[in-house]
Design a protein that fits this description.
The protein is of the alpha/beta class. The protein folds into three domains: 66 residues, no CATH class; 104 residues, no CATH class; 190 residues, Dna Topoisomerase Vi A Subunit, Chain: A, domain 2, CATH 3.40.1360. It is 50% helix and 8% strand. It has a six-stranded mixed beta sheet, with helices on both faces. The chain has a two-stranded antiparallel ribbon with strand order 5-6. The longest helix is centred in the first third of the chain and has 44 residues. About 6% of the residues have low confidence.
Length: 429
């Protein structure tokens, strides 16, 4: 394992002899992969995650965002499809020849059939596995199609030309078609809920150990702090100004993330959370915004039953835009966007989410399709922090850009109509 301080490669003997420190510079290693079980983590891997998520130390990020990207790094290693074709063919030839030497032609054919069934069953399991990411599941589905085509070509030729056996021909055709059919069916199943490969407690322990050895991670955001006890004086000239847009985030964590990365300055958008973060300037900001008759409000939230109530709260709460003709745009993330997504989205599931979905009020249910309700009632949900920081910022920018002209944008659906105009974007990303 390479030392992140000097780059010296230390093998296990070096690390042991130096009590877990670099043999060259004496810098302590945080992780020892040989004693970590299945989820083996190294110092260079952890450092690479920090560099990637912060885009070379240029973007702030939340602890939860880092948790998702680290979990995904383990997920990418969970299924290696690069050499599947060669290993599949080698295994088939080996088992056929090996068992033919003991049981003759019948023994070889039986072993081959059992081998094909095991391979198909394994690939089907991988294509539906919550432990794999969408890309790995898709590769497994494509491998099913490959296996099916191979069985059809080789099986039909062998049964008709070499063996001259009609039963073998029928078995090859049925097994090959079944494999191709299942592969094609599973290839498009992108909305499968996923499970974590690492626990949040392990992650927090790794994070604490890393910072004890290497110091605080500069771009890692702390928990949002209340500033109610602080007095902030705002220049009167500033209060006369108003933003053209307001982004209301469901969580203070996402609001802090956007503010820390200067999203408000670069996109002329005020940023607040539905909980009132940042508290010290919340009321002043709202007073400024209410003076702008052309203001557009963008709602940004997780895709959970509870989160879908954000729009209704903005429309009906006296603290927000009750009795106002303001335009509110739901940029996501909504079940409609997840179901129709072409990109990989980390979908989770929980009994609590299913229970909340079954108790959704009518004003929210009326704006959801049967497919969306079914998806929510299955317990599915998506967390905004599962998106990489750079990706999330780009998605929000893209959502705003696509709504600059509401009347001509065919990518918008009118969710409801009242004194407040409410729109919902078709895609998230």
């Amino acid at each position: 394992m390479k030392c992140i301080s000097c780059g010296t490669d230390n093998n296990l003997k070096d690390r042991t002899a130096n009590y877990g420190k670099c043999s060259n510079c004496g810098h302590a290693f945080v992780f020892e992969p040989t004693s970590m079980g299945i989820t083996k983590l190294t110092d260079p891997m952890f450092a690479k995650v920090i560099s990637d998520i912060s885009v070379n130390n240029t973007l702030f990020f939340t602890p939860k965002q880092m948790f998702y990207i680290l979990d995904n790094r383990f997920r990418n290693k969970a299924f290696n499809s690069g050499s599947f074709g060669c290993s599949y063919i080698f295994g088939m030839v080996f088992f056929t020849i090996f068992f033919s030497s003991f049981g003759g032609t019948l023994g070889g054919l039986t072993a081959n059939l059992i081998y094909q069934i095991i391979i198909i069953t394994t690939l089907m399991k991988n294509a539906k596995s919550p432990k794999l990411n969408a890309a790995s599941r898709k590769v497994s589905a494509k491998s099913l199609i490959f296996v099916g085509a191979f069985i059809l070509i080789i099986g039909i030729y062998s049964s008709a030309v070499i063996l001259n056996s009609f039963p073998a021909f029928v078995i090859a055709v049925l097994l090959g078609i079944f494999s191709i059919y299942k592969g094609a069916l599973l290839q498009n199943k992108t909305t499968i809920a996923q499970e974590y490969l690492i626990s949040e407690s392990d992650y927090q322990d790794w994070l604490n150990r890393w910072q004890r050895v290497n110091g605080n991670i500069h771009k890692l955001l702390p928990a949002p702090q209340s500033l109610n006890n602080q007095t902030i004086l705002i220049n009167p000239d500033v209060t006369a100004y108003s933003f053209d847009r307001l982004i209301v985030c469901e969580s203070a964590d996402i609001a802090q993330f956007l503010i820390a990365n200067n999203f408000h300055f670069e996109n002329n958008s005020a940023i607040l959370s539905i909980t009132g973060y940042p508290e010290s300037i919340f009321q002043t900001t709202m007073d400024m915004l209410r003076r702008n008759p052309e203001l557009k409000v963008y709602a940004l939230h997780n895709c959970t039953p509870k989160s879908l109530g954000l729009i209704n709260r903005l429309r009906t709460s006296p603290n927000w835009f009750q009795n106002s003709n303001i335009t509110i745009i739901d940029i996501g993330i909504t079940p409609r966007q997840v179901i129709g997504a072409k990109k990989n989205i980390f979908i989770e599931t929980s009994p609590q989410s299913a229970s909340e979905a079954s108790q959704l009020p009518s004003e929210i249910c009326n704006n959801l399709s049967p497919d969306e309700l079914q998806w929510l009632q299955a317990g599915n949900f998506v967390n905004l922090e599962s998106f990489r920081p750079q990706q999330l910022i780009q998605i929000i920018q893209h959502g705003i850009a696509n709504t600059l002209n509401l009347e001509s944008d065919s990518g918008l659906l009118i969710a409801s109509s009242s004194d407040t105009y409410i729109y919902s974007t078709q895609s998230f990303g």
